[in-house]
Amino acid sequence: MDNLQINIYPFDKKYNRKEFDCGSQRLNNYLQEQVSSNIRQNVAKCYVIIDNNQNIIAYYTLSAFSLNLSSIAASLTKKLPKYNYIPAALLGRLAVDNKYKGKKLGNLLFNAFARCINNDMGIYALIVDTIDENAKKFYLHYGFIEFLDNSKSLFISLDNIKKLF
Length: 165
Known about the structure:
Layout: E1 8-10, H1 25-40, E2 45-50, E3 56-68, H2 74-77, E4 85-96, H3 107-117, E5 125-129, H4 133-141, E6 145-146, E7 153-157, H5 158-164
Parallel strand pairs: 4-5
Antiparallel strand pairs: 1-2, 2-3, 3-4, 5-7, 6-7
């Protein structure tokens, strides 16, 4: 484990996902049973970290999202177009296998940030729906902000993401 090289790859069915356990059955099941069909249907992209034996030890997903501007503070929307919805990206899932927690795999989030910054489409923000209070604290630490109408959903603008780099 100590000589683990951290490279992030697009999901591939050849990677072993059967042993993945992040402590959340919902996140485990998604990786083990649903991710391939979501990729095939082009509703999500999945990126993984694998170990030397091709086991997935961490992953995240990105997909398109429409952000309802009435869900965020008016002070944040002053300079935005006066549309009801604007484009965003959704960080649908982010999980690390229990055996690798605390091994500095948090760069997975920065990889997602980089993909949002470098995409070929216009997006205003990255959205995440937190699974529990620990996840919420994790994202708040990186500058995510709560939605007005749903405290489990958070967002960070691309401008604020760029400040983190």
